[in-house]
Amino acid sequence: RVGETRERIVKPRIISALNIHPLDAIENHDIRMDLFYRLGVITIVIPPLKDRLDDIPILVDKFINKFNIKLNKNIKGVTPEVEEIFNSHNWPGNVRELEHLIEHSMIITTGDRYIRKENLPVFLIRSEINNKGDDILSIKNMANALENSDLTSLINNIEKQIIKVKIDETQGNVAAAARKLGISRQNLEYRTKKYNI
Fold first, then answer.
1. pTM of the predicted protein model
2. Across-strand partners of 114?
3. How high is the pLDDT of residue 64?
4. Where are the beta strands (DSSP E) in 34-175?
5. Helices 185-194 & 174-181, crossing angle to 10 degrees?
């Protein structure tokens, strides 16, 4: 301690974080190898927010409670329309982006108990409009594909591709993939057999 001459024994516990893979950080000389092996007793990988959409409602509640106290407000939650926007957003800024977005929306919200679409930042609305435009183009492309196929085959093919993507995203975890798809595990297992995935 400052001004003290007696030695004290301490047993610190260090929590450190990297926004890139530790081995990439070592290779790029962003972190020394010996330091990593001194600190890296337990390594936990936290997936980006876009890969854990189930966490969004919990985080939204946490941030609303935080900013209700800070801003002296009484916001109860977000509208279903805002929930839909949150679930379709890519979240490049992860949890910090969500926190700032909630704070922005609560500052803008006046006399309302719920965060509405019009309270969201402009960049998020613009992003949503662009995504919808992309969706319309995709639908037109799919409709054009009907010239070479029938509707049932096209729908089955789309369903198969979506299931493959979700199973890849969850690294083969069928229960997690089923949750992401909004269906039961049994239903997903039936579909994987049907499509030979």
1. 0.55
2. 77
3. 96
4. 77-78, 114-115
5. 100
